[in-house]
């Protein structure tokens, strides 16, 4: 069995930072921990640059560390077998160029072809994980590979040194305070309950701000630039530029610049509660070992609510306060719940359970560790196909 040495990863940016966030972490881990020569094809270099400042948005081909980054500008193009990697991955069924597929069919041996799917806790995922799909014209087979939360899935993305780095950072209060201070946080903000807020524009942010503002606990809310722009602008009373902060009542809201992925991890580690959105940040929130609220990517006919409830069945561990907050935050409703949520009451209930939720987050993290990590699991499966 030959060992794969090269991998092509195709990424179309649909959910802003989620798609490229996942693919960039995945590419780095493949190169750094497994010695794979990775070519990352991306259609939107401007979004990529927000989380990786080294990206040159006008370059057709560039080298970032050990990874070759290609601007995937078109489905056109002719390719030869020599251009084809040992492993070819479509992220979330993004349909790679027909010319690339034709060249794959000419390779001997054929490359391993995988569709790396989106994250879901739904039961059907276990039955579809690693299923084959024959190409209608060429002698090629594509396999589906699903991340997930059980041993019958591929697990979650996680670097080998991540847990050691997290524990070292979280056990050093001075390092955490210094990290937060570089964004301008005052000692008062650092001493408050720190909440990161990353959500889609339709989240009920204004209502939550009001509940926090009128509460009896100091809360420092840290919001990346451009997130919840309307509600943040209304609270601040001015443009939501990085470094701007305003305090009203018990709440302070501070706008942060977008940061590289490694610093985003530290931001999650240094906070007490993390609001996250999409797939990349929700996975990082789980590795942070802190309570979190997930704003799931919206789908037509509210299909995302079914996906959310499936996750809560696995994660919420019978916590009524967490279940209710998750659902209302996503425009859904718990069974028997009021049509219009009382955000002050929801927050009071969640806050009362925070110690238990923190312990649960750590226990959940231990469970996820038993599944292995997505990158290693995917390479093992690819090796079995070669």
What's this entry about, in short?
The protein is an alpha/beta fold and 386 residues long. It has helices at 17-34, 45-51, 98-106, 124-128, 162-170, 173-181, 187-191, 205-213, 229-236, 261-270, 280-288, 303-315, 320-329, 343-352, 354-369, 374-385, and strands at 6-11, 37-42, 61-64, 67-71, 87-91, 112-116, 132-134, 141-145, 193-197, 219-224, 245-248, 251-256, 273-277, 292-295. It has an 8-stranded mixed β-sheet with strand order 3-4-2-1-5-6-8-7, with helices on one face. Strands 11-12-10-9-13-14 form a 6-stranded mixed β-sheet, with helices on both faces.
Overview of this structure, please?
- By secondary structure, this protein is an alpha/beta fold.
- It has 16 helices and 14 strands.
- It has helices at 17-34, 45-51, 98-106, 124-128, 162-170, 173-181, 187-191, 205-213, 229-236, 261-270, 280-288, 303-315, 320-329, 343-352, 354-369, 374-385, and strands spanning 6-11, 37-42, 61-64, 67-71, 87-91, 112-116, 132-134, 141-145, 193-197, 219-224, 245-248, 251-256, 273-277, 292-295.
- The strands form 2 sheets. The protein has an 8-stranded mixed beta sheet, with helices on one face.
- Helix 13 (320-329) packs antiparallel against helix 14 (343-352).
- The termini are close together.
- The model has no long low-confidence stretch (mean pLDDT 95).
Pick out its properties.
386 residues, alpha/beta, 8-stranded mixed beta sheet, 41% helix, 18% strand
